[in-house]
Specification:
By secondary structure, this protein is mostly helical. Among the domains are: 34 residues, N-terminal domain of TfIIb (Single Sheet); 94 residues, Cyclin A, domain 1 (Orthogonal Bundle), CATH 1.10.472; 117 residues, Cyclin-like (Cyclin A, domain 1, Orthogonal Bundle). The chain contains 23 helices and five strands. The protein has a three-stranded antiparallel beta sheet, with no helix packed on it. Strands 4-5 form a two-stranded antiparallel ribbon. The chain is flat. Belongs to the TFIIB family. Pfam families: BRF1 (PF07741), TFIIB (PF00382), Zn_Ribbon_TF (PF08271).
């Protein structure tokens, strides 16, 4: 480097490394320069005499470098551009166009563009339409700045469904952690009053009075909790309707509907809710001069209390109580009659099964007599089994009588002890008395195992609800089976023709032909062996019978 000196020692013996871009003093070792990026522009002459820029143009917010070097022409313009830069330029142009249609100032447009850059840097624009993102950024700006623009206005300008636009707006506001303030209905009063003045042609002097009266009504609605959870257009429409009639201007509900774009039912409902408040009972002079300090309850709370009062009145009224008592007594009588009939039938069956009926032997037919004999025999067997204390030993003793002996099996006497050992192992050492061992179990634990009537009924109802479809299918299948019973067809088995063979060789060949034993056997070679003279002579000596 010509004319350069060291800042530390003043020596001119400097050494430059072009690969590392560093300049070092060889005398003291001080690094004078170590930067590859330069701030000045350098040009070089091309093959055709054109001036080319050396290096690349890198913007401050670029995420990668452009690969192509910029070519400088006569107007010194750079031809290479990044995709991100093009996207931001298109977004800024489109946001500015929408803002001009909505008559937004430059500050709102710039704020919306900054919101878009934040969404783009966090990859929130991927998978969404650009118009939805532009409109959502503009609406967030309008909500923060407090302008009188609604989401419906952006939907009309961009020709996007209002529900899709609202969904995109909520996604972006939550992802960017932007606290959107609640809507104040008062900011729409001036806008709607001006549109009403153009629609019905009111006097310009009364427009200000209508606006002040409507603002006062909306503020009172806010104090009485009517605006919470409601759209501002419905509140503004009802307030404008009341304000026009209070100031002596004839205005219909249809005119208000054309301005605020809500249905008639919504406006009438807001008027009814405002009429239930204490402010709704005041006169015009009292309303314009007196400010009530108290606040009414929300409309939803009032409706819930009204429903509860009606239910209590119905229950406390004599007619309803007598009606319920008559119905309950009717059902109780039906239940008692049914239980009594079931109890009497059960008692009759028990007496007939245990005592029998010896007085009516002449009337009993032969079939009934057989049934009675079978019942008595079954009862005797059951009583004998229940009275028998040690049934396991008797059963084993009876089994020993039917077991095979060593002589019948052709075995010696020393091998007959195996079955005795097995039977000895199966014989229980202590007979079971039939009682449950409850040692180590508390009463609370036993109570937790048992269900009361309420729990049993609840589980039964739950099981019925879960398996309702299956039960319906079973009932339907049973009805169909009863209406159209299936006729089972008898399956006839085909009898195989007996194998007729004169010699054993023919029998073996027939068996191999009908049933192949294995796929790994060469049956052709086997049949050739069977047909040989030696094999035929051996097989002929064997008796087939």
């Amino acid at each position: 480097m010509f004319g350069a000196t060291c800042n530390q020692c003043g020596s001119t013996e400097l050494e430059s490394d072009p690969n590392q871009g560093a300049t070092v003093c060889t005398k003291c070792g001080h690094v004078i320069e170590e930067n590859l990026i330069v701030s000045e522009l350098q040009f070089e002459e091309g093959s055709h005499g054109a001036a080319n820029l050396i290096g690349r143009m890198v913007s401050n917010d670029a995420n990668y470098k452009s690969l192509a070097a910029g070519t400088i022409g006569n107007n010194l313009s750079v031809n290479s551009r990044e995709s991100r830069e093009i996207t931001l330029e298109n977004a800024k142009r489109r946001i500015k166009s929408i803002g001009q249609q909505l008559r937004l100032n430059n500050h709102c447009v710039t704020t919306a563009f900054n919101f878009y850059k934040m969404a783009l840097s966090r990859r929130l624009t991927y998978g969404r339409r650009q118009n939805n993102v532009y409109a959502a950024c503009l609406y967030m700006t309008c909500r923060i700045e407090g302008t009188s623009h609604m989401l419906l206005d952006l939907s009309d300008v961009t020709q996007v469904n209002i529900f899709e636009l609202g969904k995109t707006y909520l996604k972006l506001s939550n992802a960017l952690c932007i606290n959107i303030p609640p809507i104040d209905p008062c900011i729409y009063i001036v806008r709607f009053s001006n549109r009403l003045h153009k629609l019905i042609g009111t006097d310009a002097s009364k427009v200000r009075d209508i606006e002040l009266t409507a603002l006062r009504l909306v503020q009172r609605m806010k104090r009485d909790w009517i605006h919470t959870g409601r759209r501002p257009s419905g509140l503004c429409g009802s307030a404008l309707l009341v304000a026009c009639r209070l100031n002596g201007i004839h205005c219909n509900i249809r005119d208000i509907i054309k301005i605020v774009q809500v249905c008639e039912t919504t406006i009438r409902k807001r008027l009814a809710e405002f009429g239930d408040t204490q402010t709704g009972r005041l006169t015009l002079d009292e309303f314009m001069t007196v400010d009530l300090e108290g606040e009414d309850d929300p409309p939803c709370f009032k409706e819930a209390r009204k429903r509860q009062k009606l239910m209590l009145q119905e229950l406390e009224s004599g007619d309803q109580a007598s009606k319920f008592e008559s119905e309950i007594s009717k059902f109780q009588k039906m239940i008692d009659d049914k239980l009594e009939s079931l109890r009497s039938e059960k008692q009759k069956r028990g007496r007939s099964a245990l005592e029998g009926n010896d007085t009516d032997d002449e009337v009993i037919t032969e079939d009934n007599a057989v049934d009675k004999i079978i019942e008595h025999e079954t009862a005797d067997v059951l009583t004998r089994v229940l009275n028998d204390k040690d049934t396991s030993t008797t059963v084993l003793e009876k089994l020993k009588e039917f077991r095979p002996t060593a002589k019948s099996l052709g075995l010696g006497t020393n091998r007959s002890s195996g079955l005795e050992v097995i039977l000895a192992e199966t014989t229980p050492s202590q007979p079971d008395d039939g009682e449950l061992d409850l040692t180590g179990i508390d009463d609370e634990e036993i109570d937790s195992y048992l269900l009361n009537d309420k729990e049993r009924l609840s589980r039964e109802d739950l099981w019925t609800k879960v398996n309702s479809e299956y039960l319906q299918e079973q009932d339907k299948a049973a009805e169909e089976e009863a209406e159209h019973p299936r006729v089972k067809r008898k399956q006839t088995k085909r009898k195989r023709a007996p194998c007729v063979a004169t010699t054993a060789n023919e029998a073996v060949e027939t068996m191999l032909h009908e049933k192949r034993i294995s796929s790994k056997i060469n049956y052709q070679v086997l049949s050739a062996i069977m047909k040989s003279d030696l094999t035929e002579s051996i097989m002929n000596d064997i008796d087939i019978d």
